[in-house]
Design a protein that fits this description.
Strand content: 5-15%
Distance between the termini: 69 Å
Radius of gyration: 37 Å
Number of domains: 4
Largest sheet: 12 strands, mixed
Shape: elongated
Oligomer: single chain
Helix content: 40-55%
Structural class: alpha+beta
């Protein structure tokens, strides 16, 4: 057990060692005097035994190598193994030279350096199983291509600069390219005296920067995290919809897993799945896993294993409480992100003093002659839906369609027929605002899109929400999920009397940020309905700057920060479904409706008869063979009687007579 713990700590310890060596190398390249002063301090003399050189390219290489080691890249393990073997070999040569009677005697540090490098080499070999992250041939091809291209560019540029500025006439034509290579690799540690080259200091600086850039881009290409196109395939979408049809009541954000710019990872048992997108070096999951909550753990474990295999940092956003507990059980940290506003249709009422603000807004819009129409997307003709989409795009604030965890990213798709559209018209019949909701199971709705004409009557959004709740029975809805309020508890407690200094400070910071992003306004717009607040969480990894990496990836995914893959993601999100996919989804919805249709409760006598039929079928006998006929009746010709006389039934076939019971007994 202890050996396993030591081996498991090798990647982290080695990453720190390489990082410190790289920093020392860069500092020594910038100022040799500064590093010498540090070495004069007795406590810091251990710095001299790091594998550093006064070179910017070398320092950059070690820093980038430390990142690859931290990500447990197999290529980083190989490069580090070569470097440690080189350091160990040099240390052994120093010991041999000292033992042979060299002028410089051996110190304790020399023995410690050799022993340390030897021990590190042994531990690195023992920990080779810890470095299992897939590098990918694409990364290797990219790194080789970048290195070759930059080597040619930096070589030509550097040689030209040296040739134009060389003041030493003693060197030949071959000395200048050699000096460029030495200066590019070693930096200030190389001098031109040995190759008869004399150039100004600014030329050496440019050559060092070129060498650093060469290594920086090459090592980045080699150690970058694996890429995966975020595309929800038709098979994955059908799987997700089957899970939603069975377990869609559990999460109000479950339908947003059907965005086509997400991936889906299915648990090995097939009973749960997890929707995510690889955003840079972060595998970003959103919402709760789909499917049976008892199988969520298997889906999360498969996702984490996928992250380890590709050196991705795991993170999940907008997670419910039950899923957050499951993520925490699998080793992720959990922080509260905010609260989701959920309105119970049965308990919603515009009466009372606390609802006065909403009630006044609704009455004002009604007096202006506004009306509302509520219908499913499947009831809207295609041409009319296209016109609605155009108006929604016109009313959108900004050119970027934001959303990832709480937005579907499309409108009018034929696979979204169960979505609900709320349209508001003014007195002249013009469309002035709309709300679009996605299904939350079979009896709920979750807000997807909210758009309005800026010139419309004030309070239009409140009017549409109130009318939807009022007419919820027409679409079979019992609960409605509205907007999400980030860090709601800070806004709620910070504005109250008696709030502590920490809460007030956080409230002040968030109020300032609300000038640029809709933070406090979203909380206030939801709070007026007096909803039930349901917390949502973020889950992130312990190491590797998990929370910061998650925050940046989340901001790019939601559209708050620019992303180079935005156009590609938009194309994937708005991809048209195939007719086969549409037909498959309709079959899933029809099967779900049949499964939820109410069934008549059988009486005791009927249950006994059905059980007897099951026993007959289990014995291999058909209870109602096709040759049998129902009993027939004939009216007797006796005068004065209107009674019916049963006609003799035809003889049953021999197979039927051999059964243990006849048709009369089977019918009960």
């Amino acid at each position: 057990m202890r050996a396993r713990i030591v081996v498991g700590a090798v990647p982290g310890a080695l990453s720190w060692y390489l990082r410190l060596s790289g920093v020392v190398s860069i500092l020594a390249w910038l100022s040799a005097d500064w590093i010498e002063r540090l070495l004069d301090i007795w406590v810091l003399r251990w710095i001299g035994y790091f594998g550093w050189l006064p070179s910017m390219p070398w320092g950059v290489l070690l820093v980038l190598l430390s990142s690859g080691v931290r990500r447990r890249k197999r290529a980083a393990w190989r490069i580090t193994l070569v470097l440690l073997a080189l350091f160990f070999g040099l240390s052994v040569l120093v010991l041999i030279a000292g033992a042979a009677g060299a002028e410089t005697g051996l110190g304790l540090g020399d023995w410690a350096a050799a022993g340390g490098y030897g021990l590190a080499l042994v531990l690195l070999v023992a920990a080779r199983g810890e470095f299992g992250a897939l590098g990918g041939r694409a990364n290797l091809r990219l790194a080789l291509g970048v290195f070759a291209a930059l080597l040619v560019v930096s070589g030509l540029l550097g040689t030209t600069l040296v040739r134009l500025t060389d003041r030493d006439p003693g060197g030949g034509a071959w000395t200048q390219p050699v000096y460029v290579v030495l200066q590019t690799i070693l930096g200030a540690g190389a001098t031109g005296g040995t190759v008869d080259v004399a150039v100004p200091g600014w030329v050496d600086l440019i050559l060092g920067v070129l060498g650093s850039g060469l290594l920086l881009v090459t090592v980045w290409a080699l150690f970058r995290p694996g890429r995966r196109a975020a595309v929800l395939t038709p098979g994955e979408e059908l799987t997700a919809r089957r899970l939603l049809a069975s377990y869609g009541e559990d999460d109000s954000l479950g339908y947003f897993a059907l965005r086509r710019d997400k991936d889906l990872l299915v648990a090995p048992n097939g009973r749960a799945a997890l929707a995510y997108r690889v955003q840079g070096s972060v595998s970003l999951a959103s919402g709760d896993p789909l499917g049976d909550p008892e199988a969520w753990g298997a889906a999360i474990e498969a996702w984490l294993e996928d992250c380890r295999a590709h050196s991705w940092t795991p993170g999940a956003v907008s997670v419910g409480e039950r899923a957050a507990v499951e993520y925490r059980r699998h080793g992720l940290n959990v922080l509260e992100l905010g609260d989701e506003a959920i309105v119970d249709v049965a308990g919603f009422n515009l009466g009372g003093r606390e609802m006065r603000q909403v009630r006044q807004a609704v009455r004002r819009v009604e007096r202006a002659g506004y009306t509302v129409r509520i219908r499913r997307h499947a009831q809207i003709p295609a041409a009319e839906m296209a016109a609605i989409g155009e108006r929604a795009d016109q009313w959108r604030e900004g050119e970027t369609e934001r959303g990832f965890s709480m937005a579907l990213g499309r409108l009018g798709d034929p696979t979204d027929g169960r979505c609900v559209m709320v349209e508001a018209f003014d007195g002249d019949g013009r469309l002035r605002g709309l709300l679009s909701f996605v299904p939350w199971g079979r009896s709920g709705l979750s807000l997807d899109l909210m758009r309005r004409d800026r010139g419309a009557e004030n309070g239009l959004n409140e009017f549409m929400v109130a009318k939807l709740v009022e007419g919820a029975a027409t679409v079979g809805v019992r609960r409605v999920s509205l907007n999400f309020a980030m860090l709601r508890s800070v806004f709620e407690r910070g504005s109250q009397i008696g709030a502590g200094p920490a809460v007030r400070l956080a409230y002040g910071v968030l109020s300032f940020m609300s000038r640029f992003w809709q933070l406090e306004s979203l909380y206030l717009s939801n709070a007026k309905y007096h909803p039930e607040w349901v917390p949502r969480y973020v889950c992130f990894a312990h190491a590797g700057g998990g929370l910061m990496s998650l925050g940046l990836a989340y901001a790019r995914a939601e559209g708050f920060l620019p992303s180079l893959s935005r156009r590609r993601l938009d194309r994937a999100a708005n991809a048209a479904p195939s007719p086969e996919l549409v037909a498959g989804i309709r079959e899933i919805d029809a099967a779900a409706d049949r499964a939820r249709a109410p069934r008549r409760r059988l009486s005791e006598q009927e249950r006994v008869r059905h059980a007897k039929l099951d026993r007959i079928r289990a014995a291999g006998v058909e209870p109602y063979p096709s040759a049998s006929r129902a009993p027939t009746w004939s009216r007797a010709s006796a005068p004065g009687t209107g009674r019916r006389r049963r006609a003799p039934a035809p003889a049953a076939p021999p197979r039927w007579r051999a059964a243990s019971c006849g048709p009369a007994s089977t019918a009960g």
